[in-house]
Every structure is written in C-alpha cells, then in structure tokens.
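Reminder to self: tokens first, then the designed residues, so the page reads top to bottom the way the pipeline ran.
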C-alpha cells in the first residue's frame, strides 16, 4: 500500500536505512542479515519503534509492510541510478525519512543511505560495512570498463559520505586501519555485527568430512581457490564433500569457471552448488558440516564467520581484511594466507583428521561469539549510542 504520513515523532523512534531482504526467510548478503537482525532486536526493547527504509527497484512509490514489530518501507531505487549520481534514490530516501519523522536515523553502508541520513539534519549514526576502495581494486582486475567506472563512482561517493559523518559505528578495527582519518573527524563507537539468536541454538551433529562454504560464487570470495584446495582433500579422503551455499547469478562467467574446475578435477559428485539458502536451511547445513571454509580475498567482518562461530562450527578462513580480528588462529579457528590453496587444504586436513581439535575450536569459537555477537548485547549497545547522539 502507498506510504502515509507518520504521526508525530515518538520517543525512541529509529529509522534504519539499509538493505532489508525482500523475503525475510531468504537473506542475501551480510548487510541484509545485520539490518534485519538489528531491527527486530531493537524493536523488542521497551520504548523502541523501529522503521526500516530499504531501496527497491520493484516499487514506483514508497510502500509499507509490517514484519512483526518492525515496519519496512520499500523506497524506489533506480536500476541505473549512478547515471543520475543517485540523486533520485537520495530524494526518495529523504522523503521517506520525513514521513517517518524519527528521533534518530541509522544508515548502513557508505552510499545513498548515508547521504540521505546525513542530509536529513536529524541525529544520525552511520555503520560502515565495507571498504569500497579495496573491493574496487579487486573488481578492476577482472571487470570491464563499465564495472571499473561503477566502482570508481562508489569509491568517490564513499569518501564524500563518510567525511561528513559525525557518529560512526565500526564493526571491525580493520575499518580504522583502512580509514585512519575517520577517528579525527568523527566520534567512533565499536559495535560488532549481531547474529540472529537462532544460530546460537543450533544442535550440531557433524558429518565425518563435510566442508561448507556459505558465500556467493564471485571472484572476491576465492571459490576457485577453495575448489583447488578441496581437490587435494578429496584425493586422500573418499568421504569428503564440499557444499557451496551462495547465489551464482552475480558473476556468471566466474560461476561457469567454478563449474568447469569441479569437472576438470573429477569432483562432479563431491561438490554441491546449493544456491542461496533460506535461513532455516543454512542453519541445518551448519548443524551437519564438519567445518566452514572461506577463501576470500577481501572481507571486513563476514557475518557468515560470526554465524558459524555462534553455531559452534570450526572455521578455516583466509587472513584478509578484518578476518584476523574475528578469529584467533589456533584458538577459535584456523587462518591461511589468501590465494594459497595448499595452505587452505592443509588447515582443512587438520580439522578433518583431528576430531579433538575440531571440537576444541568449535567450543572456543562459540564462547567468543556469545560474548561478541549475541543480538541482545549488540542492540543494547546500539540503543545506548542512539541516546548519546540524541543528547549531543
């Protein structure tokens, strides 16, 4: 239904600007998971009224949906918005903010959501989720001119938006290493990403040699390296299976290369492409896998790692970006250099061959996750920040 003007602002009304899943049972990407989890956890707190403003190319006017205690406003988003410098997206977001009339605006990302929040002249908080400059560098290695131009625009826009923010949430110390100037221009609050509480309640019954990779099939995630590493494991372990849980449509050429690599190594019946999974199915995969493997070239604070740790599932990952800030090598998981399939395979073999190590890492990882990523704690920290920002 069409957007209607909201009543006068109530104490504790917050507008979260960011990606929100079109289907709440099927979340694509870490930012969607964070926004959805945080919105529902905040809405459960006394006195909080939560609205999510999320861009959608499927709507021509602002529409409103009710998801439990959270009101979701779908805001028009142009498919070729960069041609107009995202001004149309910005205009619609500003209109939605005025209609909601929140006490505080909390933008997730570094683009139009942040620009609209900071332009609203309301108390505003920004959560930075990634480093566009690093992602642009990787995209330039494989993308065409159009891809490079899009990433160049996003990199410049990121700097423009973040330079104007006064209150910033950093989800990882890595962000301050990449943007050291942020601490000189803004008040920094460290709050890590929340994990849906259901992941902490998973009862694990792992299979003997099942490796799960919950990641999109794109070059930045290093899926080809993981397939190469798995081929070494499959050669000596007849029970080993690799399950790739991530959407395949974003980079179809790369997905084709991954399928070809599977066939070239004779692993057709040992590697499963599961596609993007509903949340319930993902939790079932975490309950039965031996370990989670991530071979990415660039990450900030992957929600998939936090979810695996919350489930008590040991993680083998590449030591890139903010991953070493999430995993203590040898204590809560195992780290490998990026683009090193041999090292990745060696760490995976350690887990598959040593049940005691697997169990120890799983228990330690889950204890760390409960202290760091439980949504109740993250929501409480976030609300406290809102109160400080509104008083300032």
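Designed residues (392 positions):
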């Amino acid at each position: 239904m069409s957007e209607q003007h909201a009543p006068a602002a109530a104490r504790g009304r917050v507008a979260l600007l960011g990606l929100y899943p079109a289907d709440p049972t099927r979340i694509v990407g870490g930012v969607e998971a964070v926004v959805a989890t945080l919105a529902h956890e905040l809405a459960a707190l006394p006195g909080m009224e939560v609205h999510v403003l999320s861009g959608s190319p499927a709507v021509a006017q602002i529409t409103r949906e009710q998801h439990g205690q959270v009101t979701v406003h779908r805001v028009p988003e142009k498919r070729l918005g960069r041609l107009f410098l995202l001004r149309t997206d910005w205009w619609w977001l500003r209109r939605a903010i005025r209609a909601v009339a929140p006490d505080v605006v909390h933008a997730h990302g570094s683009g139009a959501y942040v620009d609209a929040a900071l332009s609203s002249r309301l108390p505003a908080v920004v959560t930075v989720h990634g480093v566009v400059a690093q992602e642009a560098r990787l995209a330039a290695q494989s993308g065409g001119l159009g891809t490079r131009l899009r990433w160049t625009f996003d990199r410049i826009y990121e700097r423009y938006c973040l330079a104007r923010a006064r209150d910033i949430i950093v989800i990882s110390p890595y962000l301050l290493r990449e943007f050291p100037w942020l601490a000189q221009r803004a008040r920094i609050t460290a709050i890590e990403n929340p994990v849906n509480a259901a992941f902490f309640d998973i009862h694990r019954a792992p299979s003997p040699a099942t490796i799960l990779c919950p990641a999109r099939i794109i070059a930045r995630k290093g899926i080809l390296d993981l397939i190469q590493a798995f081929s070494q494991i499959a050669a000596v372990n007849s029970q080993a299976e690799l399950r790739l849980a991530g959407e395949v449509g974003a980079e179809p050429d790369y997905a084709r290369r991954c399928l070809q690599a599977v066939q070239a190594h004779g692993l057709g019946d040992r590697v499963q492409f599961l596609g993007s999974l509903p949340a319930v199915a993902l939790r079932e995969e975490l309950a039965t896998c031996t370990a989670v493997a991530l071979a990415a070239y660039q990450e900030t604070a992957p929600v998939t790692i936090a979810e695996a740790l919350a489930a008590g599932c040991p993680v083998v990952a590449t030591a890139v970006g903010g991953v070493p800030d999430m995993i203590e090598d040898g204590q809560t998981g195992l780290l490998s250099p990026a683009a090193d399939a041999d090292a990745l395979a060696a760490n995976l073999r350690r887990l598959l061959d040593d049940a005691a190590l697997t169990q120890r890492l799983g228990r330690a990882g889950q204890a760390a996750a409960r202290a760091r990523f439980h949504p109740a704690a993250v929501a409480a920290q976030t609300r406290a920040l809102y109160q400080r920002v509104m008083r300032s």
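DSSP finds 15 helices and 14 strands in the chain.
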